[in-house]
TrEMBL record:
GO cellular component, one term: plasma membrane
UniProt cross-references to InterPro entries, sorted A to Z: HATPase_C_sf (IPR036890), HATPase_dom (IPR003594), His_kinase_dom (IPR005467), HisK_dim/P_dom (IPR003661), HisK_dim/P_sf (IPR036097), PAS (IPR000014), PAS-assoc_C (IPR000700), PAS-like_dom_sf (IPR035965)
Classification via SUPFAM superfamilies: ATPase domain of HSP90 chaperone/DNA topoisomerase II/histidine kinase, Homodimeric domain of signal transducing histidine kinase, PYP-like sensor domain (PAS domain)
Protein known as: histidine kinase
PANTHER family linked to this entry: OSMOSENSING HISTIDINE PROTEIN KINASE SLN1 (PTHR43047:SF72), TWO-COMPONENT HISTIDINE PROTEIN KINASE (PTHR43047)
Record-annotated PAS domain positions: 16-60
Catalytic activity: ATP + protein L-histidine = ADP + protein N-phospho-L-histidine
GO molecular function: histidine phosphotransfer kinase activity; phosphorelay sensor kinase activity
Domain Histidine kinase residues, every copy: 163-380
Keyword entries, A-Z: Coiled coil, Kinase, Membrane, Phosphoprotein, Transferase, Two-component regulatory system
Record domain PAC: where: 85-138
EC number: 2.7.13.3
First-level EC class: transferase
Length: 380
C-alpha cells in the first residue's frame, strides 16, 4: 500500500514539475532562479529577450556582488532575509548598455525543513506601459498649460470687456445728454421729423447703455466685485417703471404689453436697481423674440413665503431640450438667432445671478412656436 502511495506521489510530483517547466519555458514573463548566495542558476528565454543578454552571461551572475541598481539590490536583500521584494525601474545589466523599464517580483524559496534555498524572480517588460504613462503625463502637462492659457485669455477678455465698457460710458453719457437737450428743446424748437430722429437717438443710446451695463455687470461678477444694497422695495413700483421705460420698444414692434401687479403686494428685501435690471432683461427678451402683433404680460402675486413674478410672451418659443442651457453666459440657441434677433446672450445669465443673490429661484417654461414664460420667485 505504501509503495502504491509513493508511486502516486512521485507521479504527481513529476506532473507538477512538468507543468511548471512548461510555464517556465513558455511564459512571456522573464523568470530566473538564484541560490542563497544570490547567484543565478536558471532562467528562461523570455528573460534573455527582455534583458537583451546571452544565456552564458546570465547563468552564474552573482547579484549580491555585481548588481549596480541599489533598488534591485534592496529587493534581493529582502529575499535573502526570507521576505518578498519588489522592484520597478529602468534596469541596465552590468554587461550591456540596453536600458529596459521592468517590474520585478522577488520571492524566497524555502525548503520543507525551513532552510533558505534561494529565490525566484519574475520580470515583466513594462516598456509599453511606461510609454503610455509618459505620453499621458505629457498630455496632462499640455492640458494644464492649455488650461492656464485659457484662464489667462479669459482674464484678458474680462479685463478688455471691463475697460471697453468703462470707456464707452463717457461718450454714451455725452450722446444721451445732448440728445436729451434736443428732445427738451432747450436749444430751440424742433419739428416733427427732427423729433422722430432725436427719439431714435435716445432710444438706441438707451439700448447701448443697457448693453454696456450688462458687460460691466459680467466683468464685476467674474472679478467678484459685484455689490448689492438690500432695502425694502415694492415690486409694483419697479414693474411700473420698467413697463413705462420699455413702452417705446413695445410700440416700435407693434406689440401689446399688459401688467397685472397689485399695489397691495408686500415689500421685499432687495436691491432696487438690480431687480429693475432683472425685469428689464426679461421684458427686453420678450420684446426681442415676439413677432409684431404679439403680446407680453407681466404679473406678480403673493404665494406663501414668496412673491411670484412672471413675464409671459407669445413669441417664437424655445425647444424644450434647450431650456436648461438658457442661463449660460453668452448662450444663444444657435448662431442664426443672434444674427436675426440681435443681443449678446447675457440677459438670462445676469437675471439668474440677480435672482440667486436674492435667495430666489428662476425658471423658464416654453414650447417652440408657443411662446415663453419666465418665472421668478423672490422671498418676502
Amino acid at each position: 500500500m505504501r509503495t502504491t502511495n509513493n508511486k502516486q506521489a512521485d507521479k504527481a510530483l513529476r506532473e507538477s514539475e512538468t507543468k511548471y517547466r512548461l510555464i517556465f519555458e513558455n511564459s512571456p514573463l522573464g523568470i530566473f532562479h538564484f541560490d542563497k548566495n544570490g547567484i543565478v542558476t536558471e532562467c528562461n528565454e523570455s528573460l534573455l529577450k527582455i534583458l537583451g543578454l546571452p544565456k552564458e552571461e546570465v547563468i552564474g551572475f552573482n547579484m549580491e556582488i555585481s548588481l549596480r541598481d541599489e533598488n534591485m539590490r534592496l529587493a534581493l536583500e529582502a529575499v535573502l532575509a526570507r521576505k518578498s521584494g519588489q522592484y520597478e525601474g529602468e534596469y541596465s545589466p552590468t554587461t550591456s548598455t540596453k536600458i529596459t523599464p521592468i517590474k520585478a517580483d522577488f520571492s524566497p524559496n524555502i525548503s520543507e525543513d525551513g532552510s533558505l534555498q534561494g529565490g525566484i524572480c519574475i520580470i515583466e517588460d513594462i516598456t509599453k506601459r511606461k510609454r503610455a504613462e509618459d505620453a499621458l503625463q505629457r498630455y496632462a502637462e499640455e492640458l494644464a498649460n492649455a488650461n492656464e492659457e485659457l484662464k489667462s485669455l479669459d482674464r484678458m477678455k474680462d479685463e478688455f470687456l471691463s475697460n471697453v465698457s468703462h470707456e464707452l460710458k463717457t461718450p454714451l453719457t455725452c450722446i444721451k445728454g445732448y440728445g436729451q437737450i434736443l428732445s427738451d428743446e432747450t436749444l430751440g424748437s424742433v419739428n416733427d421729423q427732427q423729433k422722430k430722429t432725436v427719439d431714435t437717438i435716445m432710444r438706441n443710446s438707451e439700448r447701448l447703455r443697457r448693453l454696456v451695463d450688462s458687460l460691466l455687470y459680467i466683468s464685476k461678477v467674474q472679478a467678484g466685485t459685484i455689490e448689492y444694497v438690500f432695502e425694502p422695495v415694492q415690486i409694483a413700483e419697479i414693474t411700473d417703471y420698467v413697463v413705462a421705460d420699455m413702452l417705446p420698444q413695445v410700440k416700435e414692434k407693434d406689440l401689446t404689453i399688459e401688467k397685472y401687479v397689485p399695489d397691495s403686494l408686500p415689500s421685499i428685501n432687495g436691491d432696487k436697481d438690480k431687480l429693475t435690471d432683472l425685469l428689464v432683461n426679461l421684458v427686453d427678451n420678450s420684446i426681442k423674440f415676439t413677432p409684431s402683433g404679439g403680446r407680453i404680460t407681466v404679473t406678480a402675486q403673493e404665494e406663501e413665503d414668496n412673491l411670484h413674478i412672471s413675464v409671459e410672451d407669445t413669441g417664437i418659443g424655445i425647444p424644450k431640450e434647450l431650456i436648461s442651457n438658457l442661463f449660460q453666459r453668452f448662450y444663444q440657441i444657435d448662431a442664426s438667432i443672434r444674427r436675426r434677433y440681435g443681443g449678446t446672450g447675457v440677459g438670462l445669465y445676469i437675471s439668474k445671478n440677480i435672482v440667486e443673490a436674492h435667495n430666489g429661484k428662476i425658471w423658464v417654461e416654453s414650447e417652440e412656436g408657443g411662446g415663453t414664460t419666465v418665472h421668478v420667485n423672490l422671498p418676502k
